[in-house]
Amino acid sequence: MALWMRKSLKTFNNFKCIMGSFAMINQTSSWSSSFIQNLRNPYSHFGNLPTLFYSSGVESTTAQNQSDSSFNSGCSQQVMDFPGGKVRFSPEMKFISESPEERVHCYQVLDENGKPITGSNYIQVSEEVALKMYSNMATLQIMDTIFYEAQRQGRISFYATTIGEEAINIASAAALTTDDLVFPQYREPGVLLWRGFTMQEFANQCFSNKADYGKGRQMPIHYGSNKHNYFTVASTIATQIPHAVGAAYSLKMDKIDACAVTYFGDGGTSEGDFHAAINFAAVREVPVIFICRNNGWAISTPTSDQFRSDGVVVRGQAYGVRSIRVDGNDGLALYSAVHAARNMAINEHRPILIEALTYRVGHHSTSDDSTKYRPVDEIEWWKLARDPVTRFRKWIENNGWWNGERETQLRNSVKEELLHAIQVAEKVEKPPVADIFTDVYDVPPSNLRVQEKLLRETIERHPQDYPSDVPK
Amino acid sequence: MAATGNSARRLGRSFVNLYGREFSTSCGSGSGRSLNLYSAINQALHIALESDPRAYVFGEDVGFGGVFRCTTGLADRFGKNRVFNTPLCEQGIVGFGIGLAAMGNRAIAEIQFADYIYPAFDQIVNEAAKFRYRSGNQFNCGGLTIRAPYGAVGHGGHYHSQSPEAFFCHVPGIKVVIPRSPRQAKGLLLSCIRDPNPVVFFEPKWLYRLSVEEVPEHDYMFPLSEAEVIQEGNDITLVGWGAQLSIMKQACLDAEKDGISCELIDLRTLIPWDKDTVETSVRKTGRLLISHEAPVTGGFGAEISASIVERCFLRLEAPVARVCGLDTPFPLVFEAFYMPTKNKILDAIKATVNF
């Protein structure tokens, strides 16, 4: 870990050097005077652009490949204070390239065989934590299999699996503390599982019974738990991201040793809320971790139809936010990255963006058949060759912490527990009619009291119109 | 307070008092100072921040006092951690505010003009309004108050004049409140800030400077969801809110010269609204007129009209009258034509009484 942190510091010191020149504040209030002064320089104001264009010819319109060493090459002597810091002028008209020569590298610790890559720096995970991580990932797989089947049997109305993204769910959760606030999308039930949400609690929500904390108001998989600092899921995309920023600001103001963490997919980064949130987070300097599960697909839309940037990680620098790209199917890499991100977020009051590269192996939801828009071979390859759970299992087996016997035992006991939970959840009655009207406001206003009375009268007249399993 | 405001976000012109709007509902208690509406808002914000260390004020340009000067002096007094500028992004302001409020803070967000609230519509409608309900009361963002100046100013055109209250009145889970005067503004705003539900508080920007009355200096609140009868009468009930009440008041005075006695009601809270007060009044007068600046079709006047017809059908002696904005975008040079002016109201009063 010490080694890791040393490397980390070096990297970020470099980063600081680069950012430092932009971060200088003009304290002399000389903006207007220097601007006027520079206007007199024929090479320093936009009015002379046509001249420059013609004199420099074709070369000047060529986009410049972006690399740190060449970015500011050919600088002229002119430096001007703009609001926000000093900017150096250049006689060359060079556009910054739309993309780097090489895509941003992806941090990886475990190879496909579950062996730590030589020279990789990561945070050691104890046997106890590693086994909990693996057990939770396996549990998530079993939950997905059984709930998916329950939906197919018509016992629950909807479900969405996490298949292929188990490592992002569990490893990120493992690197956080339960004081950290989670603002999820809807494909992160593993975070809740890690924090102790029980099979019974998951089943109660999916079956919309009266023990569902959401009182049967939302579709299955819209979990939420105050006790576990897990804000209730909304179906809307990316709306939770600015909430995480506001909550993180509160943590900072209250000097609480915790951060906010928000999850979203590649599609979510096209929403305005993502851009709003990451910009607010940078400006207010709040301890929030943005975790993007770039799984390649937003329902049927591939990332090639979603954005033209090098994925999501590059957005970080554009907003002044430190960022990293991680192999989303590598539990150890994710654990290390989130652990480090958490430290930086809290200790340095800064947002961190993590792009986890992965693949949505399951359909978008039970309402979707993804073989209609993507090749089955592709799905199978990710499922078999790049499965994050298998890779993590190989690692713990290589460490001598796990074996086939324990595997069988775990899967059997989780399956049994979940099947039991489902049987129980199915028998628990639905929430009562009164729950329609509560929680719209802190107390029901008069219009809702009147509507409840009218509805109850209607139910009495036409009981056959209403589901019999909802207590009146 | 420095009187340097009035700068519209994308336009900058001084106000022109075309319609002679001035309105005061002073109760003459004499316990306060004479204040205009923006100063009363400012006083309320001072009190809100003073009385709750977990209250925050934020929005575009609020740090220097806001383009209407409502947040003047707050950053100096309470620091830049509690009163701060945000990036120019309404959905970010409200989304951030929801998260801040969800942690038990009083998040007082300013949207610079109601005309620019629409980028935040999803955050208000799908998030703030449903935050408590969808979580089964495990979480709430009740500490959120969204302030936004609304309505005509004489020269605002499409994007500095709108009255979008009806959009928000269709959303269970939020409250919508609009004050008519400085004294009301202070008391209602403090109630909104402290109410355990998210509230959209529209401020009549035409009255920021024009409306002046005695405002008590102390910390006081007016109840939400309670309409106020501000003038008693027998022949017809007039219902309105915000700046429009000043126009309606003038129509009442002119009607009185013709021997028509009007009862004028300020609804104050649009949702959840006080049907009982309006119903009681209409049962007495037998006639109802509603007036608002927003376009007539789908305006909140339609809801009031339908509700009162349901409750008072046999007591009504004339159709419910609505004197509202035209069903057009808010047109700059045609503002005088668009507006529900005093004489339009006066004509409707006479037509309704003589029906």
> What is the count of helical runs of chain B?
13
What is the CATH level 1 assignment of the largest domain in chain A? Answer: Alpha Beta
Shape of chain A: globular
CATH class of the largest domain in chain B: Alpha Beta
Please identify the structural class of chain A as seen in this structure: alpha/beta
Q: Mind describing the biggest β-sheet of chain B?
A: 7 strands, mixed
Low-confidence stretches of chain B: 1-20
Strand tally of chain A is 11
Q: Assign an overall shape of chain B.
A: globular
Q: What do we call the CATH homologous superfamily of the largest domain in chain B? A: Thiamin diphosphate (ThDP)-binding fold, Pyr/PP domains
Oligomeric state, counting identical vs distinct chains:
heterodimer
Task: Write a brief structural summary.
Chain B: Heterotetramer of alpha and beta chains. Chain A is of the alpha/beta class.
Task: Provide an overview of this structure.
- The complex is a heterodimer of chains A (472) and B (355).
- Chain A is an alpha/beta fold and 472 residues long.
- Chain A has 3 domains: 24-96, no CATH class; 127-427, Thiamin diphosphate (ThDP)-binding fold, Pyr/PP domains (Rossmann fold, 3-Layer(aba) Sandwich); 433-465.
- In chain A, 43% of the residues lie in helices and 9% in strands.
- Chain A has 16 helices and 11 strands.
- Chain A has helices at residues 2-23, 31-39, 49-56, 127-152, 166-174, 189-194, 199-206, 240-253, 272-284, 303-306, 313-318, 331-348, 376-385, 388-398, 404-427, 446-461; strands at 63-64, 79-82, 85-88, 95-96, 181-183, 260-265, 288-294, 297-298, 301-302, 322-327, 352-357.
- In chain A, α12 links the parallel β10 (322-327) and β11.
- The radius of gyration of chain A is 26 Å and the shape is globular.
- Chain B has 13 helices and 14 strands.
- The relative contact order of chain B is 0.14.
- By secondary structure, chain B is an alpha/beta fold.
- A 7-stranded mixed beta sheet of chain B has the order 3-2-4-5-7-6-12, sandwiched between helices.
- In chain B, α9 (244-257) crosses α13 and α10 crosses α11 (300-312).
- Residues 1-20 of chain B have low confidence and may be disordered.
- The longest helix of chain B is centred in the N-terminal third of the chain and has 15 residues, at 37-51.
- Chains A and B meet through α8, α9 and α16 of A and α3, α4 and α5 of B.
